[in-house]
Design a protein that fits this description.
The chain is α/β, with parallel strands linked by helices. About 35% of the residues lie in helices and about 15% in strands. It has 9 helices and 9 strands. It starts with 17 loop residues before the first helix and ends in a 10-residue tail after the last helix.
């Protein structure tokens, strides 16, 4: 019922152990390579770059219950930048929210695990957001609904920096700041890459932090690979009475030396390159984060 607080429960265990979160992020990077390798084409660079963000969000921050993914007071996560789908699927499997073997059908004919995250996978995908720039608008609706029913649920939106070129996103940002949606946290994956190349050579969106601040948001710029810094930023976000925007600076291809800094939106991954990347991560072969 609107206006009535929903029942409280303890979410699934989370961790703030830095070494464990770093290990999980490395495991997710290997999973990205393994998901893309069979077809040789996919969102490798984005997934490698965002692995630390996903490790922190799903294993330290989000209030979830894998035994009941439809728990009404769960935190909501929206992947607005569908180009992070490979690492998103890997994370859902690692967190026990989808079956790891089923994720292996990624991009296969008839598989619900499409190249862009789709609700065909199930309710763990809160919304299908392949049309870039729409995730923040959907997240605002979810944050408003949670506030009206006095739920502790928070809404998190992961946005690509290239999406900031979309006009409707700024209308959404203006509304969120005006409504002081303190239960909304936006993370901008600032990897400087879009399909046409380096973002500054297409349409500059800088300075991101100053623009969101002008729209009434609390803003922090953070190294997207610095797990302690990410944890601190997310903790501060929970204590504010404004929506928070974290501008997370990430490196495309992070963790695989031959791919780091290569701005390839839809990277072709020949078997030789995949084998080299997996060899570089070979010490993680036996790790299991489920």
């Amino acid at each position: 019922m609107i206006g009535q607080a929903t029942r409280e429960r303890q979410p699934a265990p989370r961790t703030t152990d830095i070494n464990e979160l770093e290990r999980i992020a490395r495991r997710l990077r290997r999973d990205v390579i393994e998901l893309v390798a069979p077809t040789g084409q996919g969102y490798v660079q984005q997934g490698l770059g965002a692995a630390d963000l996903f490790a922190v969000l799903y294993f330290a921050e989000l209030r979830l219950d894998p035994s009941d993914p439809d728990w009404v007071d769960r935190d909501r996560f929206l992947l607005s930048t569908a180009h992070n789908t490979a690492v998103f699927y890997a994370t859902l499997a690692a967190r026990g929210l989808v079956d790891r073997d089923e994720v292996g059908s990624y991009c296969g004919d008839g598989s619900p695990f499409e190249i862009n995250a789709s609700e065909r996978v199930g309710t763990v995908i809160e919304a299908t957001l392949g049309s870039l720039g729409q995730g923040l608008s959907v997240g605002i609706g979810m944050a408003l609904a949670a506030r009206r029913r006095q739920s502790a649920a928070r809404t998190y939106v992961l946005l690509g920096d290239g999406e900031l070129q979309e006009g409707q996103l700024w209308e959404a940002a203006l509304f969120a700041g005006s409504a002081r949606l303190s239960n909304l946290c936006l993370i901008v994956d600032d990897n400087q890459m879009q399909v046409e190349g380096h973002i500054e050579r297409v349409v500059s969106v800088a300075p991101i932090d100053q623009k969101f601040a002008a729209f009434g948001w609390a803003v922090e710029t953070v190294d997207g690979h610095d797990i302690p810094a990410l944890l601190g930023s997310l903790e501060r976000a929970r204590g504010r009475d404004l929506p928070t925007c974290l501008v997370a600076r990430t490196l495309a291809g992070k963790g695989v030396r031959s791919l780091e800094g290569v701005l390839a939106h839809n990277l072709k991954l020949p078997p030789s390159v995949a084998a080299e990347a997996l060899a570089e991560l070979s010490d993680l072969r036996a790790e299991n984060v489920t």
